Amino acid sequence: MSEGKYRALWLEGESLIVIDQTKLPFSYETKRLTTSTDAVHAIKDMTVRGAGVIGSVAAFGVYLAALECQGNLEKIEILAQRIRSARPTAVNLMWAVDRMLKVLESANSPQEIIATAHQEAIAISDEDALGSQKIGEFGCDVIAKIAEQKGGKTVNILTHCNAGWLAIVDRGSALAPMYEARDRGIDIHVWVDETRPRNQGANLTAWELGQSQIPHTLIADNTGGLLMQYGKVDLCIVGTDRVTRSGDVANKIGTYLKALAAYDNQVPFYVALPSSTFDMQVSDGVKEIEIETRSADEVLYMQGLLASGDIGQVRVAPIETPALNYGFDVTPARLVTGLITERGICAANEAAISSMFPDLLS
């Protein structure tokens, strides 16, 4: 057991410490979460983000609720529902809270409820850590095959948003195959989409890859299609916040456009995810998945390192101009080459998903 120690979050006594991802890449800071309300705020304001890490923080948030309520299950359930509704799109959040509550129902005393919450939150994150390792291995097999076809020349991979260890403990989803490729000595280069408007690619993915000394280049979000036309992209790997039982993929806004470009240029387009990201209750992603709308200020302003050396915001649009800020889009299953999971690579259709994940159907 990890005893609750992961790269993006870790237990310290009866508190959860998380990396404040809003401060990266210019400042490495952490926050101490001591209550379930702290967990809600961390998820809402994107101190933590990424489907898996949100799920882990939600699970530990239920544990913090158990401590707050001294093991009173009825009170815990009220606080847990507040955690569950912190953000709408990432299904791992709801899944983790529901799993925690279901396990707590079988505990027989307040002390047992607290101990069970502690153990189950760790178990959820441990499973993610093991799953991310397996995702890396299966995904790297794809990279290795392309490397062989290219005679050992550099494999160029395009990714959108951040799906590394900041998003899913402890190696991520989309970035896990890249970390595995580094470990196997495969020559790779990563095209990193900036991922406007919150710039998770520029701020987080580029930072992660730099920390691991993996060659990468930051590109504007609209550059990927051109690179594919020029034959400079061998495959795309992205993460996801929710995948339907039919294989539709909800991910950071802009993913759909990359998938269209990949399809038009015969570039393989893979989506990496742990099984907890499947939502078997949803079939049509476009019609049924709620897409989060965030503050217009994220579009109207950009945060970065100023010439003075301070971190600050600048407005990039006229004062009178309004903005619309959808956080995610849905990529139809027909555009997805395959789903890289901890159980193997699965075709993006209902029959294949149901066959590989029958336990998720009930």
Automatic annotation (TrEMBL):
It comes from the Bacteria. Keywords: Amino-acid biosynthesis, Isomerase, Methionine biosynthesis. The record marks C161 as: Transition state stabilizer. Pfam families: IF-2B (PF01008). Substrate binds at R49, G50, A51, R87, Q200, N251, K252. One of its GO terms (molecular function) is S-methyl-5-thioribose-1-phosphate isomerase activity. Its EC number is 5.3.1.23. It catalyses: 5-(methylsulfanyl)-alpha-D-ribose 1-phosphate = 5-(methylsulfanyl)-D-ribulose 1-phosphate. NCBIfam families: eIF-2B_rel (TIGR00524), PRK05720.1 (NF004326), salvage_mtnA (TIGR00512). This is Methylthioribose-1-phosphate isomerase. It comes from Tumidithrix elongata BACA0141. The gene is mtnA.
